[in-house]
Structure formats: C-alpha cells, structure tokens
C-alpha cells in the first residue's frame, strides 16, 4: 500500500522534518507544507526568513506545477486582484447608475383603460376559466417581472444586481484561500 504525505510525514522525527524544510528544493510543495505544519504542531517555530527561504527555494522545483489548486500561486494572486478590482468597479458603477436612474425616474403611467383589469373579479374569473389558475399566476408573475424594469423599481433592480454580482466576484477572488488546506490539520 502506497503511503501518502499525510500518513508518512507525521511519523518522521524532528530532524527528518527539519531536513524537509532546509532542503526544500528536493521535495514537493505538498510535502514541505505538511512538514512545516507538523513542526508547528510539535512546538517548533519557523521564522519569517525561513518561510521566505522555503518559498524561494521551492519555487523553481514547482515551476509550472499547481500547488494544491488549478492555478499556480502567482497566477491565482493576479486573477484574484483582477476579480476584486472588477467587483469594486461593478459596485461603484452599478450603485451610481441606480442612483441616477432613481433620480430621473418618471412615475409609472396609469392604465389606458383607467383601471387595472387584473384587480377585477370578473376579469380574473374569465382568465381562470380559459387557462386555469396557472394562467392567473403566470400573468401576475409576468406583470411583476415587467414592473422590475420600469421607474424606481428599475433603480432597485440595478442596485440589487450590481451588489449581488460584486459579492459573487469578491467571493470567487477569496475562495481558493479557504479551500487549499491552509487551515490547521485536525487530529482525532
């Protein structure tokens, strides 16, 4: 049976773990990360200089390889910065547009008949006879959806859509950090 890093490295001595850290160009990134985590759990502290040296010495060994994700770390950081910038710009432009739309919105026009047919019992009954309850529900849903794109409702719709899209992009830009295993290992 082939042992994995997760099962083999915790069994090593402190000296062997320090060898992983000091000669990091020989080992894979995943093995070094597990060794560093194991050293920390055993009470050893690594200085910032040691961690930077590990990162610097291990970079050529893993050039072009993925270290625990779909993109190399530098590409992901660049992509994350772009996504966060896009999220901020969408938020600024979207909220600014919604304010302009709200200030320039005209009141909704009255119905040409002078009343809304959907509010009369007779009209609703005839709609239900011809198409069933689903016809009434579909008509109300269509009118509600059309109402989102007119007047002050349009301003609210643009604001909600821009905030939602900005939050989605922001979440995508920070999501990999929580999914790559950078959190401490739990032991039973």
Q: Could you characterize what this model shows?
A:
With 188 residues, the chain is an all-alpha fold. Helices cover 66% and strands 0% of the residues. It contains eight helices and no strands. Helix 2 (14-22) crosses helix 3 (29-41), helix 5 (73-104) packs antiparallel against helix 8 (151-179) and helix 6 (121-131) crosses helix 7.
Give short descriptive properties of this protein:
single chain, 188 residues, mainly alpha, 8 helices, disordered C terminus
What is this structure's SSE topology?
Layout: H1 5-8, H2 14-22, H3 29-41, H4 48-58, H5 73-104, H6 121-131, H7 133-147, H8 151-179
Helix pairs in contact: 2-3, 5-8, 6-7
Q: What's the total count of β strands?
A: 0
Report the sheet-strand fraction: under 5%
Output the number of helix runs: 8
Q: Note the gap between the termini.
A: 22 Å
In short:
The chain is an all-alpha fold and 188 residues long. The protein has 8 helices and no strands. It folds into 2 domains: 54 residues, no CATH class; 107 residues, no CATH class.
